[in-house]
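Give me structure tokens for this 398-residue protein.
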Amino acid sequence: MNRLMSLLLAAGYAMGQTVFLFACHQVRVRAAGGGPGLVLRDVRLFGLDLDGFSVRDTGQAQGWVPQLVFLVLCSGLMYAVLRSARPDARPQLRTVLALLGAALLAAGVAELAGPALDPRSPLVLPTSGQWVGRAQVDGATALPEQYALWSCWLLMPSWAAAWLLRRWAPVRMLLGTADDAAGGEESPAAVCTVRRRRDVVCAGLIPMVLLAVAGGAVLRHTNVRHLDQSASITFDPELWLPYHPPALVERWSGVLYPALRMRPLDTEETAGWLATLVVCLVFLAVLAAALYAVVRWAAGRHPVRLFMNCWYATVLAAVAAAVVESGLLQGPWAAPREGAGPMGLVHPFEAALGDAVRFGAVWGWATGACCLGAVWLMTRREARTRPKVQEEQLSHAE
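Here you go.
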């Protein structure tokens, strides 16, 4: 897509979201009559909080800086994604998914910026338990992620309208979306062989598999092996068989996906561990499929584009795993995670979504770096072997 159309779409999205984020809460307060003790009810659409991420207090940095970070980063990433779209501005599924991944990545960075600006937070990077505590105090979690999930689709109507009007003379002259302007451009060449694509995908999975083998933060289950044979008594595993992850894992537990682990805990029942393993395998399978689709179009494109697309794929795969986890962990085989569920203040999907997007935002670069490194090594190896092949062909011709 050309520069002007991408800029107009991204700028229009940014302006609309700026007005909504900085004005929605104030408008609702004035419409309700104001007052010091006023409590506004949550507004939800398909279970997602619509205005939970809107600015409520401009007097403190943590009240508006995360929203500003989201707007700037999301607008820039969406502009870059639109620039890589088809020249004729036709919406495609892979571009739509990339836009969703860009919005979620910006939301994850914005959420991580919140505790760093909060004077109440003792650490710049809270642990898993501290994230749960913040969610219980606020009564909600993953607000930037929920906002990104529904707001990114607001770009689609204007994009679809631009494509439908591409043959209209004013639009064609202004944006250059005529068919003849993009008719001579072909699709980028794919990575040469299936084997090479598979090698790149395997390289990209290495960081995630290592994290899964090492194990993430403790995902507590009430379905544990009991000290007493009575099934009516359930003990917290930490009370009679403590499990404490290493200090390094505990320090980074706030950005580790709890369900991304392949080894069971000592106190965990088999059914609970199998449910966690299913979530882990779903994440790895979705990530592998997404990376394969990204690598298909890697050749002939800028390396940074490949790097960022792999990062988006990691975020989207983690969100897919969070959807599965929020369903599995409500069954009889496993209990909801700490602080979530019917007895907690946070919905299981919101808790899983927050963990997944934070994980993808912090560790997705490793997937992109490994895929980029694998493509670079293959390119150098091919460049070294090409002169030898040409020399052999010339010698046979002589």
